[in-house]
Amino acid sequence: MYYTSFHTHFRRQLLALVILLSSMSHAFLTPSHSTTKAERTRMTLRYADDNGNMELTRLQRVALAGVSVSATGFWVLLRAGEDAYYPLRVTDTIADTGAATSPEALTILQLLANVDMAGAILPPDILARVIVLSCEDGQCDAPVAEEVLEIVHNKLPDGVDTYGELHEWGQSRISLPVATVDEIILEDHKQFTWRCSVKHLGRISLQPTVSTLQKISYDFRPQVSFAFISIALALRYRAPISMKVNRQLEASFLSLEALQKRFPMYRSANKLQQTSQRPAIAVERVFEINKLQAALRIAIEKNDQAAVARIRAALDEMDSMKDLPVQPDSDTSAMQ
C-alpha cells in the first residue's frame, strides 16, 4: 500500500515537472503551428541581448528567387515570404555591371542550370578543405572534429603537424573525408553557418572565418566571398537555405516592386532554368580569360611589349568570348 501511494505520488511529481519544463522551453523555442507552407518553414526564437532585453529572431526558410547584375556587382535575390526579398551580393566587380561575366557569377548561373563544372573557382574538394581547416582552428563540433582530424593528420608527411601548414600542392595529395552540405544558414552578408555531414562520421556545423576562406579562395574578397561560396555550395549540394531574421535584417527586405526598381535587370531563377537548355557555359575558359586580362594590364604597366603581344594573341585565340551568354541574342541578354 505504501509502495503504491509512493509510486503514484512520484508519477504526479514527474508529470508536473514535465509540464513545467515544457512551458519553459515553449517560452524560448516556439514553432509556428500555421498550416500554410510558408509558416511551416518558420521557427521563432526568443533570447536576451547583453542588456537583458528580449530579442526576437526567426529561422526562416528562403528560396533563391533570381539574380541580377548591377553597377555594384552580381546579386542573388532570396525570397523570404510572399512579397519579401533579401538582396545578397556575391561579387563586387565591374565585370558584372552590364552582363554576368565574372567567373563567380557564371558559376552561380551554371549551378542554377544544374551544371557543376567544379573548376578553380569552386573546386570539388572546397567543402572538405574548409571543414578540415575549421576543425584545426577549433571552429567545429568537438566529437566529429576530433575524428576528422585523426583521419587527416594520420596522412600528413613527417614533420608536419597540421593540414593547414601544407602548401596547396601538398594539400591536394591528402585524401579528405567526403562531406556534403545539409543546410546553409545566413545571419548577415558575411556570417553563415554551414550544417554538414561527414561520411561515416556524422554531422558537423561550422562558421567559416576570414582566415579559412583566404586559404581556399582563388580571389578572396571579404565583402562577398562568404556569400558566394555559401550560396554556391547550397546550389551544388541542393541544400536548403535559411535565414536568422530579426528586426534589423527584416528592415532590409524588399517587395517585388521595390526589387524590380532597384534591380531592373533582375531575372527569376525559374526563367533562367527554363532558358538554360543549351551547352554549358565555359566557366573555366572565362576564368582563364580573366587571368590573361590581369596579366595584360601588368604587362602594359611594365611596358613589356613582347608580353603584351603574346597575351593579346592568346586572348584572340579565346575568340573574345563570343559564344558566352552575354550577347544580345542570348537568353541572358536582359541582363545587359
Automatic annotation (TrEMBL):
<protein>
    <recommendedName>
        <fullName>BFN domain-containing protein</fullName>
    </recommendedName>
</protein>
<keyword id="KW-0732">Signal</keyword>
<feature type="signal peptide">
    <location>
        <begin position="1"/>
        <end position="27"/>
    </location>
</feature>
